Amino acid sequence: MPEGVFTAPLKRPDHLGEDWLEPKQTEYDSDDDAIWNDLFARQMEVLPGRAATAFMQGLEKLDLGRGGVPDFGDLSAELGRLTGWSVVPVPMLIPDHVFFWHLANRRFPAGNFIRTRETFDYIQEPDVFHDVFGHVPMLTDPVYADYMQEYGKAGWKAMRHNRLKALGSLYWYTVEFGLLQEAPGDIRAYGAGILSGPTEVVYAVEAESPNRIMLNVDRVMRTDYVISDLQPTYFVIKSFEDLYQQTVERDFDRLYRTLDPGFTYANTAVIDVDDVLHPGTLEYTLRGGRGSGAKAV
Ligand SMILES: [Fe+2]
């Protein structure tokens, strides 16, 4: 396993049950609340006009800017009214089968801890800001909420066919790094990995470097991804209905039987069948990406 890649621990911490849920949410102090507020304010400088309308509306519906780390009970009460979802606290990344089981039951497991000032700009393990600010607003959208549940159900099939990597790609290119075409020429981000940090929002939506390709579920599930740098390629959906339909109508049993165990396409590839919205220059990636000093343009 490459250094710095976080995975769920093999052993469940002693105080947790089989659902891996914390008995209650962490109590945050005023420093923690200040970190949330500062992260929130920083995102609000870059998100308007770049984040999907559904995401911005979700922030408002859940009043995530009320100040301090949100209470999961309050969020769950509101989300429950809107789409029947809840937010439940977990200590860290949890095993895949547990994660899928929660999603399939419309529970979103959210990291309990919040980053420190030292790790303010970049953390690899998802904290409460990434999980709640990044993911939860989209769960107020009824169609997206259904998609997330279907994803959880698809997880069980992927495990039976030993094709978790392929399904992981779908999560990556939609839930974490998905783009939406709200109108011709109007590309917005809805993926939590993009929306919870300050750099990738502008890059994903506006930069020349990355490819932007219309999403096709089969194609995406054959495509590799990088986890520690800006993406060379983003996949764009026409609507959340489109994403939902592509997922529920696809016979995943059949698809998994035709997929190779590894990935067929590099994350920089543009292939014949792609409907390309923006052919990227790949300048950022080819110059060496993060750590090379390349500008995210
Ligand atoms: Fe995430």
From TrEMBL:
Keywords linked to the UniProt accession: Iron, Metal-binding, Monooxygenase, Oxidoreductase, Phenylalanine catabolism
Pathway: Amino-acid degradation; L-phenylalanine degradation; acetoacetate and fumarate from L-phenylalanine: step 1/6
Superkingdom of origin organism: Bacteria
GO molecular function (one): iron ion binding
PANTHER family attached to this UniProt entry: AROMATIC AMINO ACID HYDROXYLASE, PHENYLALANINE-4-HYDROXYLASE
Record family assignment: Belongs to the biopterin-dependent aromatic amino acid hydroxylase family.
Name this polypeptide is given: Phenylalanine-4-hydroxylase
Provenance organism: Qipengyuania pelagi
